[in-house]
Amino acid sequence: MDSHFYSVPDDLLDFILSFVHYEWNRLRRVCKRWRAAVDGSPVMSRWVNTCEHGKEAIQHLDGAALVRLAAAKAGVAVEGYLCQAHLPGVLEAAQQLTGLTSLNITSSAYEKDLWDQPDFDCGAAVAARPFSLASMAHSLANLDLAIDCLRPVTCPPLGELSALTFLAVGTFVAAIPAELWAAVAHLPRLADLNVSVHTLEERGPCHIGSTAWTDLAACTQLSRLKLEHQTVKAYNGCSPGKSQPSQAAAAWIRFRQVAAMLG
Fold first, then answer.
1. What pLDDT score was predicted for residue 74?
2. Which residue has the higher pLDDT, 117 or 212?
3. Which of 34, 96, 166, 263 is the least buried, fewest Cβ under 10 Å from its Cβ?
4. Quick check: 53 pLDDT over 90?
5. Is 233 exposed, middle or buried (0-12, 13-18, 19+ CB in 10 A)?
């Protein structure tokens, strides 16, 4: 590394790196000094981010290391961005982050993932793991839980988050489970709720039933409710067998997954 840049004072380096805090995992791999700067930075410690430009998983940080890092930032970090939630250590790391005010947890299958593992099910993988955010129940105000084919069993722990004012959750398949509405009924401060659902084109949109409206009535601060339908349809002539993954082929695989879940 250039000696002039390496001689930048620690406080200035900390200030520079803070502008790209979302790249913390990549920054830690530049050199020993940058690793120490990132790990010891009072500014960088406000964030925990494993999402590098969206499509890169936490390939260079094992689950145990991620849990240790999260534990070190407990009570200090205020924002968390955790991708690939189905991988070992990610949900466990989230449970260590006491004091967070904002958390984004994603687990999505990208085009290449769908191509390489057409039967992979993110929602099922997350459902098979212990999931609880009780450690941040009194601090977390914003939660974005974006997991493909989310299962009902993942919903009840959301009811522990009594400080939530914003919740985005999905994507469910065909219908919104009663477990979500029951959890939402325990969120007295919730003002903004966004729910997404995968639906097949020929089946039409899903609806919010009377029991769900009863649960929502308990959310006396709710001012915005958004139900987002992500219509999945078959693409003629697209199926695994091409030499490279494509958006259309990935959409075909997604259609097959959702159709199989709906029977």
1. 81
2. 212
3. 263
4. no
5. middle
Q: How far apart are CA 88 and CA 82, in angstroms?
A: 12
Better-predicted residue by pLDDT, 206 or 227: 227
CB distance 199 to 174 below 8 Å: yes
Contact predicate 108/170, CB 8 Å: no
Q: Quick check: 87 pLDDT over 60?
A: yes
Q: What is d(CA 250, CA 117) in angstroms, rounded to the nearest whole number?
A: 11
Q: What is the pLDDT of residues 89-102, one digit of tens each?
A: 888 888 888 888 99
pLDDT of residue 187: 96
> Tokens 């009840």 appear where?
156
From the number of C-beta atoms within 10 Å of its C-beta (0-12, 13-18, 19+), residue 159 rates as middle
DSSP letter at 11 equals: H
- Burial-class residue 42 by CB neighbours within 10 Å (0-12, 13-18, 19+): exposed
Confirm if 119 and 87 have CB atoms less than 8 A apart: no
pLDDT, mean of residues 137-157: 92
d(CA 196, CA 230) in angstroms, rounded, equals 7
Residue 132's region, left for phi above 0, alpha for psi from -120 to 50, else beta, is beta
Let me know: does 184 contact 190? Beta carbons within 8 Å. Answer: yes
3-state SS, residue 8: coil
10 Å CB burial of residue 263 (0-12, 13-18, 19+) is exposed
**235: Cβ contacts below 8 Å, ≥ 6 apart:** 248, 249, 251, 252, 255
